[in-house]
Amino acid sequence: MTTRAGFVALIGEPNAGKSTLLNRMVGAKVSIVTHKVQTTRARIRGVAMEGDSQIVFVDTPGLFKPRRRLDRAMVAAAWGGAADADVVVLMIEAHRRVTEGVERILEGLAEIGKGRTVALAINKIDRVEAPALLSLTQDLNERYDFAETFMISAEKGHGVDTLRQWLAGQVPEGPWLYPEDQIADLPMRMIAAEMTREKLTLRLHQELPYQLTVETENWEERKDGSARVDQIIYVSRDGHKGIVLGNKGETIKSVSQASRAELTEFLGRKVHLFLQVKVREKWQEEAERYSEMGLDFKDGNL
Predict the structure, then answer these.
(1) Do residues 78 and 60 make contact, with C-beta atoms less than 8 angstroms apart?
(2) First and final C-alpha spacing in the chain
């Protein structure tokens, strides 16, 4: 049996559907998915098996114009993930035109794409008519020499199997990089923190988009097979603490219940989740917080 294994980087603008595609490919929820743009911070790796091929997905943060240190570190992580991959898949939303952001990504691909297989995946195809889809496809292929173009709906699964089968043939021959049953190389502590952060993002909507982060402070395996998980939600200001707690603690209680339920389902066993909210005014300037998110603090320098 000839096995194959390699890294595939998913890149694109925020909210292009990269996390949804990763979760669909892997068959489990390993990446945070919300309707708020730019929710993926770390380079999350999901592992998919296709025949004798192991495809290791790098779900990079969305590529956008960075304004703060955290933004700059996230963009650096995205390009770093693409530059390290065997295959790069650029995801574009079908109902969007070629924006300034997409043009910047194409310029970046011109630098890191040399000698690397780059495919185009046009996502959310169910949102547009065929003529608009063909026009966008032609426009993008004139701007960059893509190895293949795929029409997909990551949310509904259309075209995803075809893309995965093609990727399986593109990764290099070699031994598998992970055990066959491993779906992500993130430590469970980080996956658990991401789950809680997703619930906070969904609950708070526009109130605290980037002003908080979640860390799993303690993970204790109990004799009865359950786990006790202690997490800290860091916010930048005192006023933010009140928003996270909510009236009579209703918000934090709701977030805790939703996160506990998802963690319990994910692990297949009982989880005791305890959340605390702490104010750290300059958490976005602390190197330690970046390490927790899998980002390089130095990449945020101007």
Answers:
(1) yes
(2) 49
Domains located in the chain, CATH noted:
4-170 (3.40.50.300), 188-300 (3.30.300.20)
Length of the chain: 302
Binned at pLDDT 50, 70 and 90, residue 63 comes out as: low
pTM of the full structure: 0.60
Cα–Cα distance for residue pair 213/42, rounded to 1 Å: 12
Residue 215's pLDDT is 86
Q: Indicate the range of 11-20, 143-152, 165-174 predicted with least confidence.
A: 11-20
Nearest to 214 by CA among 224, 228, 229: 229
DSSP output for 46-113: EEEEETTEEEEEEEPPPP----SHHHHHHHHHHHHHHHH-SEEEEEEETTS---HHHHHHHHHHHHH-
Banded pLDDT at 32 (limits 50, 70, 90): very low
